[in-house]
Specification:
- Helix 1 links the parallel strand 1 and strand 2.
- The two termini are 37 Å apart.
- The chain has one domain: NADP-dependent oxidoreductase domain (TIM Barrel, Alpha-Beta Barrel).
- The longest helix is centred in the middle third of the chain and has 20 residues.
- By secondary structure, the chain is an alpha/beta fold.
- The chain is globular.
- The mean pLDDT is 95.
- Helix 1 runs parallel beside helix 12 and helix 2 crosses helix 4.
Length: 330
Amino acid sequence: MELSSLGLGTYLGPSTETADAAYTEAAGAFFAAGGTVFDTAANYRGGRSERALGAAFRGIPRGDFFVSTKAGYIPMPETTDPDEGPRAWFHRVFEAPGILSPDDLVDGCHAMTPRYLAHQLEISRQALGLETVDLFHLHNPEQQLAHLGPDAFYAAVEKAFEACEGFVQSGKIRAYGVATWNGFRLPPGQDGHLSLARLLAAASSAGGLDHHFRWIQLPLNLAMPEAYLAPTQMLDGKAMTALGAARAAGLSVQTSASIMQARILRQLPDGFAEALGLQTPAQAALQFTRSCPGVTTALCGMGRAAHVTENVAVMALPKLDPIALESLFG
C-alpha cells in the first residue's frame, strides 16, 4: 500500500452524532478518492473521532489504509454526572483502577506513563475496531518538558518508548512516534525545544538499533514554515531543519495544521492559488506543505465530504520543485 501525500485529520468538530456521521462519510469519500492515511487521537472530540473512523474502516480492507492515533492528553468525558465533580471522576476512572495517580499528571491534563499509554491504546484499538494500529504517537510530549526538566523528561520518554516497543512485540501497533506542536519548531536552548537526537537515543535505549520509533508529526504551513526553513536540530554535529534531520535519521513525517484550521487561507494574497495552477486557497496551502522535501503525508482536517472533494484534487498534481518552493518565501 502506498501512503497518500494527503491524510484525513479528525481534530475539529462538535461532539454530536451529526458530526460523527459526517466524519464517517468523509473518510469513506477520502478512501474512494485515493486517500490512504487517516489520523486521530484518543482525546479528539471526546473519543468520538476514533469511533467515527472505526465505522468507516468496517467497509475498507485492512491492508488498504494506514491509521495513526495518539495518547497523552486526558480525554474528557462526553457526559458527566452532575453529582460527580472532576476530581471524583478522575478517581473513579483512572486512580482507583491504578491507571494514573494525580502525581502522574502534568498541568492537570497530560500523562505518558506506561500504564496510562497501555490503557489509552486499548481504548483506541476498540474504538477503531482494529487489532493493530499502524502508528501510535506520544501526543505533544513537550507539554512535560518545563515541569520535569530535560534529563527527567527524556528518561520519561525512554520509559514510554519501552512501553511502545512492548506494544509492537504484542502486535498492538506497528510503529510509534511523537506528535508535536512547538517542540521541533523551537531552537535549541529555548523552553519547549525537542531534540530529535535525544529522542533517537531514547529509542535506541528502549529498543536497540532495530527500534520502532519511525515517525514524527509536526505543524507545517505557509504561516508556520519552521520545519522547512529553521535549523532547529543538531544531528551528528550538523545543524539541520526538523525535516532534514528526520530524513537523515530515516524517519517518516506527518505534518499537522497544513491549512491551520482554515485560518491561513484568509492570509493568502489574491491570485496565490491561480499562480500555482490551483483553484482554491486550500489547495494552494496543501500543495506547499505536501511538496516540502521530507514530508511523507500532509494532514488536513476533513469533516465533510465536500472538504474531501476540494482537497484531494491536489494529490493528482506533481509536487512543487525546490525552486518553486523557495520562491514562495522571496
